[in-house]
Amino acid sequence: MTNYYDVDDILAEEELVPAVFQKTANGVGIFDCCDDTNKVGAGTEVEMPFWLACDLYVKQAVKIKVPSCFDTKERPRDRHRDEPIRKRDRTKDEIGADAAHVDLRGRCPYFYEFGCKIA
Q: Is 1 contained in some domain?
């Protein structure tokens, strides 16, 4: 929950998150600039502020995806094994390798606050 008087808390909730609409929504055409109508269809992926995505998630209107500052990348296939390509957390790997040299502020100005909120 947002602390009303905490500027850092407010700014952390302004981070954009990718969200996929689960239902067609009327009156929110501003999120989909490719469409001339004032609605967004089900299955459309858009970026919106975290505070709005949370409210829409509670109403089961959107599904929130992992934001780019916590992004994942695909692991290359092992030549000697037929393992499926699995995803792993790039940020976690970088912190595990050398946490002192990872620029988290460059990924997101409020990396820790935002991470706690999205978890």
A: no
